[in-house]
Structures are given as C-alpha cells and as structure tokens.
Specification:
Largest sheet: 4 strands, mixed
Shape: globular
Helix content: 25-40%
Strand content: 15-25%
Order of helices and strands: HHEEEEHHHHHEEEEEEHHHHH
C-alpha cells in the first residue's frame, strides 16, 4: 500500500528511522553517526582541494541541527515523526523524501531562477539549479556554480553544487514556498506525481518486450519504484539492461533500495497510475 511504501521511503530518505526512535534519543549527545559537514542545512562543506564533501563523526543532536529539524524533533510527540522527517534538509539541499529542484521543475511545482552570465562574449540569462552529473572536481576552490551544456535541456545552463531553491514555486497542490515544501501532506502529493512519472517511463520500456511493471515479480513494482526514486527511472533501466549499479550523492546503491522495498505491496491504484 502507498502508506507502507511512503513510510519506508521517508525512513530511508530522512535518515530518521521511525521504527527505532529510541536509538536517536539515547544518542543525542553521543558521536554515533558519520555525517557531512555543513555551513547550514542544505549548504554542504567541500574540501577546497578536491571538491569532495567533508564527513565527520557527529552526535544525533548535531545531525538534527545539520538537517534543520532539531526543534521539531524535540516536539515530535506533538507534531508527529512524519512532520520531522519531511522537514529534513540534507547537505545537498534535498528535502524530506529527497525532493530537489530538477524533479520539481519537471513536475511543474517549481521554476528555477535565471542567472545572467557571459556566454561566448555576450550576456545571457540561463536557468540555474543543482547539477548532480558534474564531477566533484568542478567544485574545487570553493566554486559553487558552473556553466555547462545540459543534455537534458539540450543547451547551456548554470549548474550549482547543491539545490539552492532560489527560484519560485508555482502553487501546484498548494505549494507556494520552500516552507510549504517541507510539509508532509504536501510532499505526499508530490510523491504520487513523481511515482506516476517514474512508473510511466519504466512501463514504456517494459512494453517494448511485452512486459508490464505491475506484473513484475522480481524486482517487484515497489522495489523498482523505490529504486527509481533514488537513482531516477533511467538509472533503473540501466540496472535492468546493463547491470549498472548507480548510486546517489551519499553513495547509496540502487541495489540497497531494490532490497529495501522487496516486501512492500504496491499496485497502480496506490498512485492512480494509468
């Protein structure tokens, strides 16, 4: 069911496991987690020599502060743990279910800001948002933005090293601001649209060989859609066709998500898929 799927996904993406909250409270002051250094929630600290993220051992209190939910976590008995999880902002600026600028742009929730840059000797206004495909070395020396050719849009744009959220929200499904995006009920609406989007792409590929996503036994529909949420639908297709094992920014492998959702039941009715 959608509720079981979304709970599992939020546990994984927020890094706050609702099934083991006692561990978090017991270790508020204990250095038990490896996490990334940030200037503030959503603003990763990188090694100036390599551009790579900097990690260190942190307490749970430090982890909660770095993800912007320390106060909410203290009020979890009142607001509910899903409200805490949905408000998490990770070091790359992904929110809650790990929604980023590119996906919300594709789903018409968000319009990226346009920055003025000099291109071929002339000023140009280019869309500016997070660019996960650029190598870490791009961000050496404190660089946080880079003009590059984006094959997805078929032209140049400004890529940033994190989701900066400097654009505007369209108001779709009641999401008018970044604060609205951090609400659990709003994120569920985005999640359903994202899952339908990913399901259509995967199913179109399956149809070429006479298969169907919803009758897939191994990997299961939930596994495939969970993995698509992590690495994108084309990452799933690369795995199925070429045994590629893509990872996200944190190094989590697609195979980890395929396993994590293998026992979750999921049908087209759960997301209104067509």
């Amino acid at each position: 069911m959608m509720s079981a799927f979304s709970r599992r996904l939020l546990d994984l993406e927020s890094r706050i496991d609702s099934r083991n909250l006692r561990w978090y409270t017991d270790n508020l002051s204990e250095p038990v987690m490896d996490y990334w250094r940030v200037e503030r929630p959503g603003r990763l600290v990188r090694d100036p020599a390599t551009g790579a993220p900097v990690t260190e051992r942190v307490t749970i209190a430090e982890f909660l502060a770095r993800t912007g939910v320390a106060d909410l976590f203290a009020e979890r008995d009142t607001v509910g743990i899903t409200a805490v999880q949905a408000a998490v902002v990770n070091p790359w600026g992904f929110v809650g279910f790990q929604f980023g600028e590119a996906l919300l742009t594709d789903l018409q929730y968000y319009r990226p800001v346009r920055d003025t840059v000099v291109l071929d000797g002339e000023e140009a206004e280019l869309p500016s948002y997070y660019a996960p495909a650029l190598p870490e070395s791009t961000w050496r020396g404190g660089t946080t933005s880079h003009v590059h050719h984006d094959e997805g849009i078929g032209g140049p744009r400004v890529g940033t090293d994190v989701n900066e959220w400097r654009g505007t929200f369209t108001g779709r499904d009641g999401i008018h601001s970044f604060a609205d995006l951090r609400r659990h009920d709003n994120q569920l609406a985005v999640l359903r649209r994202a899952l339908r989007h990913n399901a259509r792409i995967v199913n179109r590929h399956f149809a070429k060989s006479g298969r169907d996503l919803w009758s897939s036994a191994e990997p299961s529909p939930a596994s495939l859609l969970g993995a698509a949420h992590l690495c994108g639908p084309y990452g799933v297709l690369a795995y199925l066709d070429n045994c590629s094992r893509p990872t996200d920014e944190a190094g989590t492998s697609i195979t980890a998500y395929l396993r994590a959702f293998s026992d979750v039941e999921f049908t087209p009715d759960d997301i209104g898929a067509v």
